[in-house]
Amino acid sequence: MNNQYITKIVSKEEDDYDEELRFWISIKSTNQNDHNKVQHHPRTMKFCQTHSLIKKSTIKKMSIILIFMDYFKYCPWDGYRFSENDVQCFICRRPKYQLTSYIQEEQEQKKWEKILYEKQPYDDNYIDETFLQSVQKQDNTNNGPDYKQLISKTSDLIFAVNCVVFYLLSYFLMLHDMVNDQLQLYFWLAAAITCLIMFSVVKKMKTLEILSNFKSIGIYISILLLFAPVMQTVNQTYADNTIYVLTSVAILIYIFLKDYDYEKDFTELDVSQWASLVFSSLLASRLHNELQVFLMIFASNLLFIFVPILQRSIKQKYNSVFRVINLISTIGLGLSLLFFSYFLALLFFGCVFFITFVSPLQIIWLYQYKNTIRGPWDLPNVKQYD
Amino acid sequence: MVNICLICDFFYPCLGGVEMHIFQLGLCLIERGHKVIIITHKYQGRSGVRYMTNGLKVYYCPFIPAIQTVVLFTYVGTLPIFRQILLREEIHVVHSHAATSYLGGELLLHAKSMGFKTVFTDHSLFAFNDAASFHVNKILKYILCEIDHSISVSHVSKENLSMRASLDPRNISVIPNAVDCSRFTPNPSKRYPLNTINIVVICRMTFRKGVDLLVDVLQVICKQHPEIYFIIGGDGPKKKILEETIQRYNLQNQTELLGSVPGHQVKDVLNRGHIFLNTSLTEAFCIAIVEAASCGLCVVSTNVGGISEVLPKNMVLYADPTPEDICHKITQAIPIAKNFQVYQQHELVKKMYSWEQVAERTEKVYYNILQTQNQTILKRFKDCYSNGQIYGLYLMILLIFDLIFLMILDFLQPHKGIQKPGIFNQIYKNQKEKFGDHLFKADQQN
């Protein structure tokens, strides 16, 4: 049997022999120790030395192969009977000289992991299927804010606009001497006292506190009276047009930047409140006598700085009362504007309608374009210390 | 051999993560046989050309920093000097770092006009929903619309960069930062004070580093565990809050504020501790954690950004960014820290990160882009226009100005007239001991 094999190999054509040799060389030998134990078969040595391509290592391999090849007539794993030309077992595909080895499954490429501490057998710019899966895009599953809720929130804005229009109305009356100065004085003083009483009632203040409030208001009025002549002369040199432009800008700043959530403490003046002081002093410079100046500044302070404080406490408890007041004042102002010009009344009602009914629709329409992207790079909500 | 130009606003004498990254990358690329120069703006008392280790040439250009070491973005002001430098040194690749460094961004655009290949590395994460991020992202989108390749330091950073700048993710490679582990070796004998579990915190005291969380944690932990001692190093705008908290709750016995720690003393501070605490709110790749792990400390960190990719799960205790969870994890870490395999951890970390690997991967990026062809001007215009219909037109006008200015400069300062610089002679590399380098003989000192 031995001789048969060797003679067969030797007698083959050179090309076939090379192929089979290449086949044997491509299979790795697992037993390194056998190199030393086994002697090289002399016939193979002689044959191989004639071939210049064959290296010494392959000679060793060949001799081992040739010696071990006939040890197995049957495959020990599945009982397949080897025929003479068989190079490997037909069923389990093990090569004939490596029958004691376990079949090595093709090593699956190691799965890509999102780690940096190990060099992975992938390119640096490899894109995995988990790419961008941690990003959450907030698709608008809820259809935005409720229409009715938005309408109720616009009442704040309408109230601010009403205050401004009322102030401008009384200024206009004063400027053109349509109403007696004394009447205006009584009116505004009465208004101030009413506001103070409402404030005390809502906050449930004790008598001492109420009296101290009265005292502080008295001090405040006397200081204003002192400074009225100064306020009159401060902006007198400006031209009329400048005054009107600056006033309009200041009014817009007041309305847009007003703190409608009443979050801030009332110890510091907001930007919007400064703007209200600005436009009241600008308008006051056009008036004729000091009493009017005092009244206008007092009115502006009352309407734009003190009334929000009152508004905050009323809104917390008597929300519906506030809404009713709002509604009445809007209608009253609109009707009184009718006396002056139809255009103004139309403009006023148009504005109120737009703010109350049309802009909530706009917000709801815009909401479909809202696009927030959240991912692992967002800063978490942490309580901040200042 | 590739001639590389690294650009960043942040470099020595400023010491931080980005600066160290640029320095180490430059040195390792020189070791691999390339030529590296660095361009920054001038610092106090440093202006002109300086040579650093191994012939790393640094150009401290006379650009004036506008806000906190970042140069004001003047589109054409930097072009003449930059053109001179690139043509002198015969650069092939221009590599810019850091998204907030506008010197790098501007010079990237000029390099593209001159026909060089450009690479950008991003070191930080930006969210999408605050006002500062909008603007930074918009400008980054413009700077990166024509870039050849980008590199990010972690997988999360890659996702973030591809979303911010609308880049093709196949053009972004992930090459992590590294740490020089030979400089951060463990030494348990240096743990001081004795008989306490020492927790080390070293960070810049800003909002992003989670100082508010640390304040809450201090109060709870110091009360629950009297055997703990906090060693807090670092300086910044929020340091006052820490001092106030310590005074208010009488924690002077259990805490120690070190102030700003210079770079060469960080290792000593780390060696004093058992546990390292990191409370950052967002982090692309936290080098501090790796340094601490290399020094053999047990690490407790918030699980934000790219931190979970940096070290294997058995080396770090991850906590949610809430004070309660951090305290819980510290309580878990205390018994672990008492019997900790310090030297084993150092060996493990040593195998994970090295600057040589970073340089090798970066070099592969350079070779890849050098094989691609240059873009035509029409393609560049299209890229500009992709930024927006009106904004794109404005950017195209800027690009035209750039090209016209280049033509004028070519006429006034022609290429042939530019002098070539002297080459740094690296003969000492062949015989290191002759020049005093005995590292191959002596053991590493602790």
TrEMBL record, chain A:
Keywords: GPI-anchor biosynthesis, Membrane, Transmembrane, Transmembrane helix. The chain crosses the membrane at residues 157-173, 185-202, 214-232, 293-310, 322-340, 346-367. It is a multi-pass membrane protein. It comes from the Eukaryota. GO terms for cellular component: glycosylphosphatidylinositol-N-acetylglucosaminyltransferase (GPI-GnT) complex. The keyword Protease does not apply. It is found in: Membrane. Pathway: Glycolipid biosynthesis; glycosylphosphatidylinositol-anchor biosynthesis. One of its GO terms (biological process) is GPI anchor biosynthetic process. Belongs to the PIGC family. This is Phosphatidylinositol N-acetylglucosaminyltransferase.
TrEMBL record, chain B:
Signal peptide: none annotated. Its EC number is 2.4.1.198. Keywords: Glycosyltransferase, GPI-anchor biosynthesis, Membrane, Transferase, Transmembrane, Transmembrane helix. One of its GO terms (biological process) is GPI anchor biosynthetic process. It comes from Paramecium octaurelia. The chain crosses the membrane at residues 391-412. This is phosphatidylinositol N-acetylglucosaminyltransferase. It comes from the Eukaryota.
